[in-house]
Write a structure and sequence with these properties.
The complex is a heterodimer of chains A (207) and B (290). With 207 residues, chain A is α/β, with parallel strands linked by helices. Chain A has helices at residues 10-15, 33-44, 54-65, 99-109, 122-130, 143-147, 188-204, and strands at residues 2-5, 21-30, 69-71, 76-78, 86-89, 113-116, 134-137, 150-157, 167-181. With 290 residues, chain B is an alpha+beta fold. Chain B starts with a helix and ends with a strand. Classes of the chains: A alpha/beta (207), B alpha+beta (290).
Chain lengths: 207, 290
């Protein structure tokens, strides 16, 4: 088990290989569908004018994400009324939906890690090699267990996106994950896809 | 009519936080099949540990508490309008108590209603009047990750060499499992409907998931296909979470419904390992949960 502290430096990332179990500690941020679309349109492709507190939020998240980690997660949160937020359930969501955006987001913010489930495609894998960064797989559905690794909710931005889609800045301790895409072009997901395709083709010719 | 909102709330809590025994047994059996030290075994160990924590703490097994899908079988004389109001009230309370995540989003404005209510389809409630004096309510919480990898095929399908027979059904289902990879939170359970129109077919593919995993299909042909599909899906080697391994699906449930001469649909509803379904039985003022 390799222990990683956020922010993560380049050398550490280059040492990680597909299959390595890791344990993360430090401050990370959740971000999923709405956040990725918002980031790309507002700050990367500039197809949408910044509105409301967009620019302020951007200035705050930039240093957080530099060398940092984004977690594809829409948590269940207690204490919404008192603003004493606490994560109750916080497993990963399916990452592939961010495939159109993730590579550009990684390059723009110098993201070192993306945590999610189900794996991502060639665009993200290319960004992992360039930035460099890794894709870390958490166990899908293990929400109550993973919530225990969240020691503190530091801040929340864009709560108007809804609880699952907001950017939750969280402090984690010993957050468990496995490297399934590394900075050397390795992807467990591409490998399993191709092996299972071969088996499928054999099964399809049986009448 | 009596107010059974509190019973509905308990049904939701149970569904969200306490995995049914047959699913847990099936996951334990899957764990035993995986090699010691493998990523697949590690994933299943984590899953089972999480199931235990969720049950102990009454916290959601998975943060995606999905679409609440209710099937209400009510005796003559009950008001479906009042039952709906009570279910909606229970769902909103369950959200407040963090058994459920606020999951109901307006697709046009992007706004989350915050209480899991919204329109006539959220939560989804089906009503059916039954004989006798027992009210039975089935609830399934179906997450979005597995819902997204569901698929519908119109047979014949040339690319897969699938004709309008059970051999063709077998082929398209295997294709759906391959396409899903680990994205639907494998090991999953396959709910399959053969026939119907596009709408009824998808609906039936979810209804069949209310049955127990180990329950045999009463139709011997379908029972045989269920066993075969589970075996062959597992031969694909996608494994828990798509990490590779012995168990890609825990089971397969198939149903059929009449179709038009022109149509031959096969609908696949993929249910994640967090197979959250519970039943409430209300009779003579007494409530029981299964």
């Amino acid at each position: 088990m390799q222990e990683l502290t956020i922010p993560i430096n380049e050398e550490t990332i280059r040492c990680l290989r597909v299959g390595d179990p890791v344990s993360l500690s430090g401050v990370m941020m959740t971000g999923r569908d709405t956040v990725h679309k918002w980031m790309v349109e507002t700050f990367i492709y500039n197809t949408r004018q910044p509105q409301g507190d967009d620019l302020d939020v951007y200035e705050v998240i930039k240093p957080l994400l530099n060398g940092g980690v984004i977690y594809h997660c829409g948590p269940v949160v207690a204490g919404l009324e008192t603003r004493e937020h606490q994560f109750v359930a916080a497993g990963p969501t399916t990452s592939i939906r961010e495939e159109p955006y993730q590579g550009d987001v990684m390059r723009h913010f110098n993201l070192r890690g993306v945590i999610g489930k189900g794996g991502m495609g060639p665009k993200t894998l290319a960004a992992c090699q360039e930035v460099p960064g890794v894709y870390l797989h958490a166990i899908g559905g293990a929400a109550s267990l993973i919530a225990q690794a969240v020691v503190k909710v530091v801040e929340v931005y864009k709560l108007e996106f809804g609880v699952p889609e907001a950017m939750w800045v969280i402090e984690v301790k010993d957050f468990p994950a496995v490297v399934t895409m590394d900075s050397h072009g390795g992807s467990l997901h591409a490998e399993i896809e191709s092996k299972s395709r071969t088996v499928l083709e054999e099964l399809l010719v049986i009448e | 009519m009596v107010d059974i909102t509190e019973h509905f709330l308990e049904l939701v809590r149970l569904a969200a936080t306490d995995l049914p025994p047959d699913v847990e047994i099936s996951l334990t059996q899957a764990l035993e099949r995986e090699k010691t030290g493998s990523a697949a075994r590690g994933a299943l160990e984590t899953i089972l540990k999480n199931v235990e924590i969720a049950r102990r703490d009454s916290t959601p097994i998975c943060q995606d508490t999905g679409t609440p899908i209710f099937y209400v079988y009510y005796p003559e004389g009950w008001s479906t309008r009042r039952l709906r109001a009570q279910i909606e009230s229970a769902v909103a309370k369950a959200t407040q108590r963090t058994y459920l995540r606020p999951n109901s989003v307006d697709p046009l404005s992007g706004k989350n209603s915050g209480d899991n209510l919204g329109g006539n389809y959220f939560p989804t409630i089906h009503f059916e009047e039954v004989e006798g004096d027992t009210l039975t309510v089935d609830l399934m919480l179906k997450g979005g990750g597995c819902e997204n990898v569901g698929a519908q095929y119109s047979l014949p399908n040339t690319a897969l060499g699938a004709g309008r027979d059970l051999t063709g059904v077998r082929k398209v289902v295997l294709d759906a499992v391959h396409k899903a990879q680990g994205k639907g939170c494998a090991p999953g359970i396959l709910g399959i409907a053969i026939g119907g129109d596009r709408g009824s077919s998808y609906l039936a593919s979810k209804e069949v998931l209310f049955g127990k995993i180990a329950e045999d299909n009463s139709d011997p042909q379908l029972a045989e296909l269920e066993t075969r599909l589970t075996e062959e899906a597992n031969q694909l080697g996608i494994g828990p979470m798509g990490f590779g391994g012995q168990t890609t699906v825990l089971g397969t449930k198939i149903t059929s419904l009449n179709r038009l001469p022109a149509s031959y649909f096969v609908s696949v509803s993929y249910m994640c390992w967090a197979y959250r379904r519970r039943r409430m039985i209300f009779k003579d003022g007494e409530v029981q949960y299964e």
